[in-house]
Automatic annotation (TrEMBL):
InterPro entries xrefs: BAP29/BAP31 (IPR008417), BAP29/BAP31_N (IPR040463), Bap31/Bap29_C (IPR041672)
Biological source species: Pleurotus ostreatus
Pfam family, one: Bap31
Residue ranges crossing the lipid bilayer per the database entry: 7-30, 42-63, 107-128
Keyword Coiled coil in annotation: yes
Protein's name according to its UniProt entry: Endoplasmic reticulum transmembrane protein
């Protein structure tokens, strides 16, 4: 395997490891910290930019490997047609089969590397959107809880105000009754004093 296909294989292995980390059932806090770091880190952004450039080269290798595979497949078919009715050359067939195998291996290697890069990108943004959605849900839940607590406190205040108003009405009623009783007492006292004065005048006569 040439050096660029070896590097492609290492990149594919790194993608597989990264994918396993992304889909691992991590706790929410760890996952949030990890994805926040990956989405906001300047170093990660630079690494992602370098990987995008490397994937361009992988795409070129994929196209080249695909062309080689088609060409070797055509050479194999031509060799088989040329050897029909004649003596089969085992070395030639073995060489063509090996070349076809390597060409197919390179196609699968580069193709899976490109495909997994797309899967990784989409998976990362899906999980990041999920984390943001969970954060928004938590905020909305807290707001609803605070609103419900405010509604409960408002209801309690209304009850207290109603109780105070009822007490105030009772106090006004008692005040009116007391004033009425005082007026009645004054009237009776006046009448009593009047009657008593009249009796005193009669006794003096």
């Amino acid at each position: 395997m040439t050096i660029y296909y070896s590097l492609t294989f290492m990149l594919l292995a790194a993608e597989m490891g990264t994918f396993c980390i992304l889909v691992a059932p991590l706790p929410y806090r760890i996952k949030k910290t990890l994805f926040t770091f990956l989405s906001e880190s300047v170093i990660v952004a630079k690494v992602a930019y370098a990987l995008k450039i490397s994937f361009i080269f992988v795409a070129i290798l994929f196209i080249d490997a695909l062309q080689r595979m088609f060409r070797i497949t055509a050479d194999t078919e031509a060799s088989k047609n040329a050897q029909n009715g004649g003596v089969h050359d085992v070395r030639t067939e073995t060489g063509l089969a090996a070349r076809k195998f390597y060409a197919q291996r390179n196609v699968y290697l580069t193709g899976f590397c490109l495909f997994l890069s797309l899967v990784l990108t989409r998976t990362f943004y899906i999980i990041l959107d999920l984390i943001h959605t969970q954060e928004e849900y938590a905020k909305i839940k807290k707001q609803s809880e605070s609103t419900s607590n405010g509604a409960e406190s408002t209801a309690e205040l209304k009850k207290k105000i109603a109780a105070l108003e009822a007490k105030d009405r009772d106090f006004e009623t008692l005040k009116k009754q007391a004033s009425q009783q005082a007026a009645e007492f004054d009237r009776l006292a006046t009448e009593y004093n009047t009657l008593k004065g009249q009796n005193s005048d009669k006794k003096q006569d």
